[in-house]
Design a protein that fits this description.
The chain has strands at about 1-5, 15-20, 25-35, 40-50, 50-60. By secondary structure, the chain is mostly beta strands. The chain has one domain. The strands form two sheets. A three-stranded antiparallel β-sheet has the order 3-4-5, with no helix packed on it. A two-stranded antiparallel ribbon has the order 1-2. The two termini are about 25 Å apart. The relative contact order is 0.20.
Length: about 80
């Protein structure tokens, strides 16, 4: 899944990124996005693979986080 932040008045690209698995094991699809007035972003999506049932997942980015990056999904965090 790809996401883009574009300034509406000038069409200037502010930032962009991709939520994917570079190993090709996990797949992500059917995304939805919510943004608040502070520019925090939450992307919800389905995740699945040959060894995982289809599941709901999400990625979050607070306005003060590094540009072009989301925090790791909760299921990928080291515990």
């Amino acid at each position: 899944m790809q996401w883009w932040q574009i300034k509406p008045l000038t069409s200037e690209l502010v930032q962009f990124g991709r939520i994917d698995d570079p190993t090709g094991v996990n797949f992500y699809a059917f995304a939805s996005m919510a943004v608040n007035r502070f520019e925090d972003v939450l992307i919800g999506y389905s995740s699945f693979s040959t060894n995982q049932y289809a599941s709901a997942s999400y990625s979050f980015r607070a306005f003060y986080d590094e540009m072009n990056k989301f925090r790791p999904p909760p299921d990928l965090l080291v515990r």
